[in-house]
């Protein structure tokens, strides 16, 4: 019998494919972002998993001899838990898997509002070393429209705490989030946020709505539509032009992206801009993902 008991669906970052996905919470405590349909099902109502259940799962895995080197704390909102609860979880992981190399989690900026840098350092010392932060945008107007419950400043405050605590941050920005009208300010203010935060990793994916965009588009009062391919590339061009990063690993290779981009910013900035420029000015020269190849 499999030792882990998940409440489906379970989501994780692509880079955690080989990690133990430990579901310490179910769903998302905020769950109001209009672009997100991940936790809307009835069975995904937010609930922390009891410590006793987590210990039972970890003990069974250890006794079965499962090799665990990396652990991802699921679902989308593990960092809403108290520092005390997180400490308990991290101690259990280390007790049963003393050779664990990395523990990571999604993190909403609001999760850190009442956690100090000292609190985060305690968690970092127990192995929690990487936070995946979905900033989505650095534009305050757009953050309000998508009901993110965050601002430029709240996002920057959280990313700054993560850095001060000695943790790494991996930030996600959503290409196409603002539609045509807000595209440029979305790109410029997202770059401004990243320049201030200097994250360790930065990724972009193309916003898509497999279940329909009506709920998302409603607050825009007719000002939003899905960006065409070239519009997405031009938005990316503005973002890359405005980014002034020192040593951030950049990836735009999610299955939703038409144009795959990989590099380190800033040293690869011009090379990445050249790729985008070629895709805009010389269609067909750079291979793009076809619609059937994209994972939405």
Which properties best describe this structure?
296 residues, Transcription Regulator spoIIAA, 34% helix, 2 domains, single chain, eight-stranded mixed sheet, alpha/beta, 10 strands
Shape: globular
Order of helices and strands: EEEHEHEHEHHEHEHHEEH
State the end-to-end CA separation: 32 Å
Helix content: 25-40%
Largest sheet: 8 strands, mixed
In the predicted model, the low-confidence regions spanning at least 5 consecutive residues are: none
Strand arrangement, largest sheet? 1-4-5-6-7-8-9-10
- Count of discrete alpha- or pi-helical segments spanning 4 or more residues: 9
CATH third-level topology of the largest domain: Transcription Regulator spoIIAA
Radius of gyration, taken over Cα atoms and rounded to an integer in Å: 20 Å
- CATH architecture designation of the largest domain: 2-Layer Sandwich
Mean pLDDT: 93
Kindly name the structural category. alpha/beta
* CATH top-level class of the largest domain: Alpha Beta
Number of self-contained structural domains: 2
Residue fraction in strands: 15-25%
Number of DSSP-assigned strands = 10
